[in-house]
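Action item from last week, closing it out:
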Amino acid sequence: MERRATPRAALLVAGELLAWWAALALLWLVLITTVDTLERIVGASVAAVGALLARAGRRAVTWR
């Protein structure tokens, strides 16, 4: 049986990823001293990768 994602489920996933990204990006901003354009791009990218890994880790633990 194939599980189909509902629009509500997709919205919840997007919300979770956005929350993780915001938390990780904020942590990065707190820890860095000076911020230029390249550092913003790198920080946002690494926060996005971290958000994906955090969601994957949470799914692996909770089986959801």
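Closing note: The first helix runs from residue 7 to 31.
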